[in-house]
UniProtKB/TrEMBL annotation:
CDD domains cross-referenced by the UniProt entry: ABC_6TM_Pgp_ABCB1_D1_like
Species this protein is from: Pristionchus mayeri
Biased composition range(s): Acidic residues: 27-37
Organism ancestry: Eukaryota, Metazoa, Ecdysozoa, Nematoda, Chromadorea
This protein's record includes keyword Transmembrane helix: yes
Record's protein name: ABC transporter ATP-binding protein
Length: 629
């Protein structure tokens, strides 16, 4: 069954036009282990990109290493609907118009200058010409306001909508990945992909792209207008463009380095804060608050130095940029004056038009230079995100493929199972394990730490696939069963129950949103959880905090057991479900587990005798031998 729609933004997010293609999963039983290593990649920058970078004084960007092939510019719009594509196009047109309009305003400025310098202020000609130009000026300014508004509205809307979809698709794709893949990832990296990369993509299809288009079109329009009005002055003024570009490129080179180090130091401080908050009870119980605050402050102090340098370079080059612009403007005025004196230029307004247009072009060229990386960064960030979105794992929880037999009893057979983890291929964990659990029977798995007990039950839920041998339920190879169906038949209770920051009822609904109140009460009674839940301030609707922090360990475990029972699994896998509890809680939870395992095939992993004393069979796992008692 495809996953349920999860967001109230269905109207925006609905529709398949933007949905990325994924590789179909055949769920075939001849799949071996889930070996899916991602190939390393080194991207080479195209010649056009190299030339652009050199022209804009950013030759340093040509040597940077990009380890993923960036998507194309249009690839950034992959999750855009037709409406988004239209808005994007309209935004680009408005950005170009907005860019062209600025040098055009310089023309009106020049005409006004002419009026003031040529006519007597009291004459009718002066009044008429001045009014005419002022009206044109106001009219054009009003048009610029509208163009700006449409441009920002379009880019902002497109960016926001596409990022919303992208975030949802990324989250959906993340939760689709198999355990072997997660073993090779760092959760911090994935969260930062969700935040930083999305931000970069947003910049690439949003306001910053508008800024780039506007800057380039402004420069081109300024050059054209300048050369049309007076090519000699325009040619002289053209020199300001590389100068301003060079100044801002220098600033970008200096600040990018220190800003990166500043961000890294702030990030390190953030990690300390996150660790301290997550482990606040341990910190407080050890009176470790001053130490944690000191560690946090030390990291922040590291960032202070970089922040100061960042500010210094920004201030210095920002000021120097204006110095370059105004000095050049002065030189332009002198040269314009000379051309006027030798009658090459007839009207003084022409000098203003050329100088103002070229200055505007140069100013915006300088402004966009630090943002040159925006597009490349966005394309590389999109490539990273799409790589995960497009990754269809062999064990695919969203796949519709596979058998869904009804009326399953839950007879579990592990037949000569060999296994090693994909992330540690050199170490073999299971060496031909054989195990049979009849419906209604409880089998205890025992053995020394690390012998492969948890691994065995992970294979029953098909978290991983055996290297050799088969795992069967009612005679069906688990590889041939539909994954969702399999995980409805098999229920797992872990040592550390994982509850979420929601109400008790919401936690019980996870994976089974249709559960009725009666069913909820029934499973909670079976799990010895109903009595304490009923005494909570809002009963089943009580919020239980991060990870269920407002419940005791035993209470959390009973809610987790009830949640597992909600889907009425035929096979119950208990992975040291009581080992983290004190003796009293253990008794209550054990009683709940005994009730829960009635009529189901149950595999219990335990170290305590009390947990396994009622088992029908005890299987001892020891590297190359498995003994049954
Ligand atoms: N995700 C993983 N990636 C790589 N190796 C793993 C992974 N999980 C477990 N292992 C290794 O596989 C072996 C078996 O681990 P498993 O968790 O099945 O042992 P166990 O018998 O349940 O141990 P314990 O009783 O301590 O819980 C161990 O050597 C462990 O280091």
């Amino acid at each position: 069954m495809p996953p349920n729609k999860v967001s109230p933004l269905e109207d925006i997010l609905d529709g398949d036009a933007w949905r990325g293609k994924t590789i179909d999963n055949d769920n075939s039983s001849d799949d071996v282990m889930d070996h899916e290593d991602d190939e390393p990649y080194k991207h080479t920058i195209s010649t056009a990109e190299k030339i652009t970078n050199y022209l804009l004084c950013r030759g340093d960007l040509n040597s940077q290493e990009i380890t993923i092939k960036p998507v194309s510019l249009f690839g950034l719009l992959r999750f855009g609907s037709r409406y988004d594509n239209f808005c994007f196009f309209l935004g680009c047109v408005c950005a170009i118009l907005s860019g062209i309009s600025q040098p055009c305003l310089a023309i009106i400025g020049g005409r006004l200058a002419n009026t003031m310098l040529v006519y007597a202020p009291t004459s009718d000609e002066f009044r008429n010409a001045a009014y005419e130009n002022v009206y044109i000026f106001i009219g054009m300014s009003a048009a610029v306001i509208i163009i700006h508004l449409v441009q920002y509205f379009c880019f902002h809307g497109v960016g926001t909508r596409i990022i919303l979809r992208l975030r949802r698709e990324f989250m959906r794709a993340l939760l689709r990945q198999n355990a072997g893949w997660f073993d090779r990832q760092h959760s911090g990296d994935l969260v930062s992909k969700l935040n930083d990369n999305m931000e970069r993509i947003h910049e690439g299809i949003g306001d910053k792209l508008g800024l780039l288009i506007r800057g380039f079109s402004m420069l081109i329009a300024a050059i054209i207008i300048g050369f049309i009005y007076e090519w000699r002055l325009a040619l002289m003024m053209l020199g300001v463009a590389p100068l301003s570009c060079f100044t801002m490129a220098l600033m970008a080179r200096k600040t990018e380095g220190v800003a990166g180090r500043q961000m890294a130091a702030v990030g390190a401080a953030g990690s300390v804060a996150e660790e301290a908050i997550l482990g606040v009870r341990t910190v407080q119980s050890l009176n470790g608050q001053p130490e944690m605050v000191k560690r946090y402050t030390d990291r922040l102090t590291d960032s202070k130095g970089f922040a100061m340098w960042n500010g210094f370079w920004n201030g210095f080059f920002g000021g120097f940029f204006y110095f370059v612009l105004y000095s050049y403007m002065g030189c332009g005025m002198l040269y314009g004056g000379y051309l006027l004196s030798v009658d090459i230029i007839r009207e003084p307004g022409t000098v203003f038009v050329v100088i103002m247009a070229m200055m505007l072009g140069a100013y915006f060229l300088g402004m966009i230079s630090p943002h040159l990386l925006v597009l490349l960064n966005a394309r590389a960030a999109a490539a990273q995100i799409y790589q995960i979105i497009d990754r269809a794992p062999k064990i695919d929880v969203y796949s519709d493929a596979g058998k869904k037999p009804s009326g399953m009893k839950g007879r579990v057979v592990l037949e000569n199972v060999h296994f090693r983890y994909p992330s540690r291929k050199e170490t073999k964990v299971l060496y031909g394990l054989n195990l049979t659990v009849e419906p209604g029977q409880t089998v205890a798995l025992v053995g020394h730490s690390g012998c492969g007990k948890s691994t065995s039950i992970g294979l029953v839920t098909r978290l991983y696939m055996p290297e050799r041998g088969r795992v069967l339920i009612d005679g069906y190879d688990v590889n041939s069963l539909n994954i969702e169906h399999l995980r409805n038949i098999v229920g797992v209770v872990q040592q550390e129950p994982v509850l979420f920051n929601a109400t008790v009822a919401d936690n019980l609904r996870l994976g089974f949103p249709e559960i009725s109140r009666e069913q909820m009460l029934h499973v909670c009674k079976m799990a010895n959880a109903h009595d304490f839940i009923a005494k909570l301030p809002q009963g089943y609707d009580t919020l239980i905090g991060d990870g269920g922090v407002q419940l005791s360990g035993g209470q959390k475990q009973r809610v987790a057991i009830a949640r597992t029972l909600a889907r009425d699994p035929k096979v119950l896998l208990l992975d040291e479900a009581t080992s983290a509890l004190d003796a009293q809680s253990e008794g209550i939870v054990q009683e709940a587990l005994n009730k829960a395992s009635k009529g189901r095939a149950t595999i219990v992993i335990a170290h305590r005798l009390s947990t396994i004393k009622d088992a029908d069979k005890i299987v001892c796992i020891d590297k190359a031998s498995y003994c049954i008692r």
